[in-house]
Amino acid sequence: MDLEKLVKNLEKNDYKVSCFDTAAEASAYLNEQIDGKSVGFGGSMTLEEMGLFESLGKHNEVIWHWHPGSRPESEARELSTKTEIYLSSVNGMAETGEIINIDGNGNRVAGMLYGHKKVYLVVGENKVAPNYEKALWRARNIAAPLNAKRLSCKTPCAVKGDRCYDCDSPGRICRGVSLLWKAPRSMEFEVVLVKEKLGY
Ligand code: SF4
Questions:
Q1: Residue 123, pLDDT score
Q2: Domain that residue 44 falls in
Q3: Strand 99-103's sheet: what is its strand order?
Q4: In testing the pocket of ligand 1, which one of 166, 168, 175, 177 has its CB within 8 Å of the most ligand atoms?
Q5: Could you tell me if 184 and 115 are in contact, meaning their C-beta atoms sit under 8 angstroms apart?
Q6: Does the pLDDT value for residue 199 go beyond 90?
Q7: Is 44 touching ligand 1 by the criterion CB < 6 Å?
Q8: Tens digit of pLDDT for each residue in 133-153?
């Protein structure tokens, strides 16, 4: 990963950027920055691995459909798109500055695009590719098949575990893709880069 090039291009694209050597340092930073807020989470193994639902939940109201508590999952999914702060990771990030997410239900891309005061994107170094084409390839052929496998989808990528087959399966999880060329204007955006492998 060419960190210098990535940071320069993200800043050019109107993102604030913070870099950390470890997930623990990034987690401590996020817990300092986000306090006493309502916080929505998009589906993300990165956030799960970092234990952010638990740590932020001690001093914020955190809403996540992966941990809906007494709410129905659908209600948690909807409420999470209306919070002050929104957290997600990405499926692919290009050193040239483009950010890619593939979604099945749409709540994650909706939450990233509108409706909050600030969005944090937490990104491990494994999500970074040299350019847009390679970042999109990774989102489709690495992130999506691993997510399909995690969800036990009856899709060719989950069964074979090697690549995307652009399937027509009823269980297809890849239903839409968002490409951010630059940070949307209506919210603050911060990319939290971590020099560790996080999520997929
Ligand atoms: S389009 Fe189908 S085969 Fe491709 S990653 Fe998504 S679910 Fe798997």
A1: 98
A2: 3-132+177-194
A3: 128-129, 92-94, 99-103, 176-180
A4: 166
A5: no
A6: yes
A7: no
A8: 999 999 999 999 999 999 999
